[in-house]
Amino acid sequence: QVQLVESGGGLVQAGGSLRLSCAASGRTFSNYAMGWFRQAPGKEREFVTAINWSSGITIYESSVRGRFTSSRDNRKNTGYLQMNSLKPEDTAVYYCAASHQTTTWGTPREKNEYEYWGQGTQVTVSS
After folding, report:
1. Phi-psi region of 64 (alpha: psi -120 to 50; beta: other; left: phi over 0)
2. Cα–Cα separations (whole angstroms), residue 36 to 7, 79, 127
3. Rounded CA gap, 84 and 36, in Å?
């Protein structure tokens, strides 16, 4: 079992920044990828970014590329999502998730590839 606990959401003005954290516990995380997804009211949960914990390889959804950065701290077993130049359309509940990987390049984009999920944290960007 892997437990994921998110923190760092809040209210910010457009153009501002927030950093989300996702603390993982329960298993050695080196064989996992950590993904970030978001869900706005009335919409499907969508992929934002994923990082392979072993290699650090990351991928991003096109609308956040260049504004968001995914990283991890191996010692703390914690992943981070740094969000800059936030826009009102970034408003959503953000979730981190963990996907067991057998390669060092695996960075899944699909929700059903993730076995474990955090509780979500609200990010609201005002215009």
Report:
1. alpha
2. 13, 10, 23
3. 15
Distance of CA 41 to the CA centre of its chain: 18
Q: What is the pLDDT of residue 36?
A: 98
Q: Are 74 and 3 in contact (CB under 8 A)?
A: no
Residue-wise pLDDT tens digits, 70-85? 999 989 999 999 999 9
Q: How far apart are CA 113 and CA 4, in angstroms?
A: 16
Q: Sort 114 into a burial class: Cβ within 10 Å, 0-12 / 13-18 / 19+.
A: buried
Q: What is the pLDDT of residue 29?
A: 80
What pLDDT, on a 0 to 100 scale, did the predictor assign at position 1?
86
Cα gap 53→73, rounded to integer Å: 9
Q: Could you give the C-alpha distances from 57 to 41, 52, 108, 127, in angstroms and in order?
A: 30, 5, 11, 33
Tokens of 102: 């057998």
pLDDT tens per residue, range 43-52: 999 999 999 9
